[in-house]
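note to self: dont lose this again. the chain is below, predicted strucutre after it. 110 aa total, dont forget to put it in the shared folder this time
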Amino acid sequence: MGEPALAPHRRYDLIDPKEDVGLWAGCAVMETIERLRAFSTFFSGTEALSMLERLSLQPFYCAEMERRRQLVRLREGLQRRSDPHPLLQRLAADNLNPQLWAAGLGPRLA
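---
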């Protein structure tokens, strides 16, 4: 792909897609749809889960989407506590509360 492209979300401006431009673009679009669909998965509910599950398997996955995925799963009773996903275990610009996720969010949140 030799044409310039504008990423649908600024996070993707910082990611080098290398040889996976199609995958990079697909993930960027899915993340952007998820962000624009609802401010929180509290408002989108389980309809967001299938896209979030697909995104979780991609190399460009981010902490924000993992939080959304786990919060839907917790609320719907698909998991009992937060999973110690590596993206949620470290302090980063898109993950400001790793200690909360490491402690294992559970039923009182759901």
